[in-house]
Amino acid sequence: MSAKAILEKLAVLADAAKYDASCASSGTVKRDSTGTKGISSTEGMGICHSYAPDGRCISLLKILLTNFCIYDCRFCINRASSNVERARFTPHEVVTLTLDFYKRNYIEGLFLSSGIIRSEDYTMEQLVEVARILREEHRFQGYIHLKTIAGADPGLIALAGLYADRLSTNVELPTEAGLQSFAPEKKPDTIRKTMASVRVGADDAIEAAKSRLIGKAKPPRFAPAGQSTQMIVGADAARDDDILKSATNLYSGYQLRRVYYSAYSPIPDASSDLPPVRPPLMREHRLYQADWLLRFYGFERAEIMESARGGMLDLTIDPKLAWALTRREAFPVDINRAPRELLLRVPGLGTRAVDRIVAARRLGKLRLGDLAKLTASVKKLLPFIVTPDWRPGKLTDSADLRARFAPPAEQLALAL
Amino acid sequence: MLAEPRDFAAWRSAARGLLADGVAPEDVSWRGSEEGASLFGDAAVAVPAPAVSLPRELLEIAERVICHRDAEVPARLYRIIWRAARDRHLLARTTDADVDWLRGADKAIRRDVHKMHAFVRFRRLGEEAGRESFAAWFEPTHRIVRLTAPFFQRRFYGMDWAIVTPDARAIWRNEQLVYGSGGTKDEVPDSDVVEDQWRTYYGAIFNPARVKIDAMRAEMPKKYWKNLPEAQDIAPLLAGAGARVERMREMAVSAANPRTEKWRTRVPEELALTEDVTSLAELAKAVGRCTRCPLYCNATQGVAGEGPERARIMLVGEQPGDQEDLQGRPFVGPAGQLLDEALEEAGLDRTRLFLTNAVKHFKFEPRGKRRLHQNPTSAEIDICRWWLDKERAFVQPELIVTLGGSALRGVTGKSASIKSMRGSVHELEGGARLIATIHPSFLLRLPDRTRAAEERKAFVADLIRARKLAA
């Protein structure tokens, strides 16, 4: 196996990593190579260096250290019982690949995950070793995202946090029952404990930074881009409500930067009780929208679920519009007078548009024509707003309002 | 008159002169001849222009927008600074046509800069004295080489590189950044040794089951494709996607890999919530796995009591809070710190006490980035009493101090008011004695300072009494 050429290993171990939704390289601290013999930098905001034909960005070299795994999670291509081709990189091979790609400006850094080999601790040690070599031997300043192995020793997690920009522990399935039936070796409490140790590590680093004496060297940062997780959507019976419930708990408990929702994608040699081919991309999209409402628009989970049926979000219209249609009494909203929180609830107004409206109306009344310069689609706003030259009249309460927005049925099918 | 078509310094000094002279925008022609001959004579540029106060943000935007390829840009920019010099709120007038144009042009430039940061592809030229050198050919939409070169300088400080574009080039060599004239594609090597690896990666990371070609094009417009080595693979990857998905479907379940059993070294641990817990350490482990009520679903971990096996005093709180839940230890959050201070004042050594809670899992309501504490119900307290009783059986304390109403219920099984129980000593079944006091978090919630100080004093007094009782 070790004789396998780099190219073949790369094909196997990148293929195995393609089911992880995260590729973000944003939200970390600024660093660069100025004055050094080395290369690499991060500027805080991420850069997507390429895009795959699946529409997803490529920012990081996203690979597995190995796809051998002692776990047998049924939704996973790398589960022990799968007949997939196996390969394993040495830490040095990953380091060389990362540096070679980085120097050609193909990537922002590395996202390293791994199948679990020997033990959780051994696997975590190997991941940390790659990051250590990059940071200490090559002074690599680029972005490093390490997958934490749930159940690994908190000491290893603490070490990982010193080298990595981001740590993530995947919860995979949002409910206890789902995990129990699909991933018998994964324990939800082990996952949560690992996330807790990442958060405690981050809190401690902040505390240390606050209490340091003037003039002393800065204490090392701990995973400055925070932690994230991923949930698989559509592999088990969990409803959107379960998924969002789990997400809100994770956000509040472990200060996650992001929860990634990944439509269950068919894997070769799949377990027979898993759904067939088409990944529920629209459901994934609606969950991301709902997640956005939770984090940036001041919505509570219960509000988002008001318009849901059987715990599932409406697939035809976005969750904010769905909420507005069930809460017509809150509309229309006066663009020139409404507080920011209310503007954020108008379908069709994003956070940036709301900021612009609030800034612009200080200097004079906004009319419908002005709104066209501040937001992408005024048409969508019409039933929900009032301006000096526009009143929706009966439109807000009209029975066919939903039909105005819902696309014709045939457009629902996603191109595959 | 602009030395280079998009030389910001030259534009700025010319614009400042014009502005200071009160030349109205409609009286200026920025076109000049195609070769950039001066309209005003060199004198206009050479005289240091008096400072005109303009918003810093506008100058920053102007420095970017001057790189725009549209020939009208210098004139339009001048009109905007002319107006801005008379209206200091101009930039905030987002509905103004000029401002709208400016923001749009700036956005286009910033996007182009971002795409150049992303899509430049270096190819290796060689290595000399340990220093590698690379070159790239890139065709940005606008004239942005000067805007982007500092980024590449910060990023690739330790190697030599050159970026050649049709309009200009930037060269970083021996830690010096220089600019030069535009060039052609054939000045840069047409391949690189790791390009095969990169294309292999690109092909492997693509998931054929979720083709979204429009999403890809929106972020990586076709105009950039010709200089991206991986882009030549897009068409074949797309063409093969359907077949790959079909193959997956056909590759129905095969027999499990025979190595499975060999690799699976451990059987999942059986959950032993058993009666046969024989020590406090085992008890703590069992609490960690407790599923007696649904609170375990959201909490991180069950938090067992902590302290010596035969402590004389047992302190019982309500339930773990946010910090206790994360760290897996009782009384380590804000209320715990307050308790520590009070214990010290009362002359009690925390390490000689047994500290625990009536409920072992944290009950909370998620609210944004925080978890709001929720009081456990009587039912939850009663279910969890099972654990508290076991802890009491191991520790056999002489004295139990209940902190707050939940703790009182946890110990006695009855809901009594603290007020009625406080101040006296109660005998418990099995010999231990009990004193009831408030929970330290109550002190944290009191807004009135004098009242808080009084309550704190009373709390310490209760602890002192506890110390004397167990002495």
Average pLDDT of chain B = 88
Number of strands of chain A: 12
**Helix and strand sequence of chain B:** HHHHHEEHEEEHHHHHEHHEEEHEHHEEHH
Q: Which class best fits the helix and strand makeup of chain A?
A: alpha/beta
Query: Into which percent range does the helicity of residues of chain A fall?
Result: 25-40%
Separate helix tally of chain A: 15
How far the N terminus sits from the C terminus of chain A, by CA atoms, comes to 35 Å
Shape of chain B: elongated
Strand order in the largest sheet of chain B:
1-2-3-4-5
Radius of gyration of chain B: 37 Å
Radius of gyration of chain A: 24 Å
One letter per element, helices H and strands E, the order of chain A comes to HEEEEEHEHEHEHHEHEHHHEHHHHEH
By DSSP, the count of extended strands of chain B is 12
Shape of chain A: globular
- State the helix count of chain B: 18
> On the 0-100 scale, what is the average pLDDT of chain A?
90
Identify low-pLDDT runs of chain A: 411-416
Task: Describe the 3D structure.
The complex is a heterodimer of chains A (416) and B (471). In chain A, a hairpin with a 5-residue loop joins strand 3 and strand 4. Chain A is 38% helix and 11% strand. With 416 residues, chain A is of the alpha/beta class. Chain B has 471 residues and is α/β, with parallel strands linked by helices. The radius of gyration of chain B is 37 Å and the shape is elongated. The model of chain B is unreliable at 33-46 (pLDDT under 50). Chains A and B meet through helix 1, strand 3, strand 4, strand 5 and helix 2 of A and helix 5, strand 2, helix 6, helix 7 and helix 8 of B.
Question: What is the fold's blueprint, element by element?
Answer:
The complex is a heterodimer of chains A (416) and B (471).
Chain A: H1 6-15, E1 30-31, E2 42-43, E3 50-51, E4 57-58, E5 60-64, H2 91-103, E6 109-113, H3 120-137, E7 143-147, H4 154-163, E8 166-168, H5 176-182, H6 188-211, E9 227-233, H7 240-254, E10 256-263, H8 281-296, H9 301-304, H10 319-326, E11 333-334, H11 340-343, H12 351-361, H13 368-374, H14 378-381, E12 385-386, H15 401-405
Parallel strand pairs in A: 5-6, 6-7, 7-8, 8-9, 9-10, 11-12
Antiparallel strand pairs in A: 1-2, 3-4
Chain B: H1 8-20, H2 42-46, H3 56-65, H4 73-84, H5 97-119, E1 123-128, E2 131-137, H6 145-155, E3 160-164, E4 168-173, E5 176-181, H7 195-205, H8 213-219, H9 234-250, H10 260-263, H11 280-288, E6 313-317, H12 322-327, H13 334-345, E7 354-357, E8 364-367, E9 370-373, H14 378-395, E10 399-403, H15 405-412, H16 418-421, E11 426-427, E12 433-437, H17 440-445, H18 449-469
Parallel strand pairs in B: 2-3, 6-7, 6-10, 10-12
Antiparallel strand pairs in B: 1-2, 3-4, 4-5, 8-9, 11-12
